[in-house]
């Protein structure tokens, strides 16, 4: 199994791949929805960060949301037809960056033992990071399909990591 530090690098690699998928798109492309029962790329960007914050908050440390107004909108329990009014690309970017900083801070505290029950939380952090990475890649697959299939943009190469492989078409970090 990968160490927490290695998983944090994989988390950063997954986020960088996500950025490769959308940073060159126009704001209109980021908020465009292929149809009403589909989510815009921007929703997926916010959702990835929302889930990361939600899981870290609920499994390792209670802390407030970095942007409470986005919580309901970015929750996948919110039906697709209600995911249309998205924040600006700048706000989504700031939200993603803030959440990533918080993930690093909290997991860093766990990795260095600056928490109660550090051994137990290391087990939690290892599984948590694996889940966050694979969730990031799960939504990257949909972003890729819209980017290439609907918007006509070339896809970047897959991230380079000995710990990544494709399963059912999805990139996954394989920690076993």
3D architecture notes:
The chain has six helices and two strands, in the order H-H-H-H-H-H-E-E. By secondary structure, the protein is mainly alpha-helical. It has a two-stranded antiparallel ribbon. A hairpin with a 2-residue loop joins strand 1 (164-167) and strand 2 (170-173). Helix 1 (4-22) runs antiparallel to helix 5, helix 1 packs parallel to helix 6 (118-150) and helix 3 (41-59) packs antiparallel against helix 6. The termini are close together.
Largest sheet: 2 strands, antiparallel
* Shape descriptor: globular
* End-to-end separation: 5 Å
Number of strands: 2
Please render the helix and strand layout as text.
Layout: H1 4-22, H2 27-31, H3 41-59, H4 68-74, H5 89-111, H6 118-150, E1 164-167, E2 170-173
Antiparallel strand pairs: 1-2
Helix pairs in contact: 1-5, 1-6, 3-4, 3-5, 3-6
Task: Give a short summary of the structure.
The chain is mainly alpha-helical and 176 residues long. The chain is built from 6 helices and 2 strands; from the N terminus they run ααααααββ. Strands 1-2 form a two-stranded antiparallel sheet.
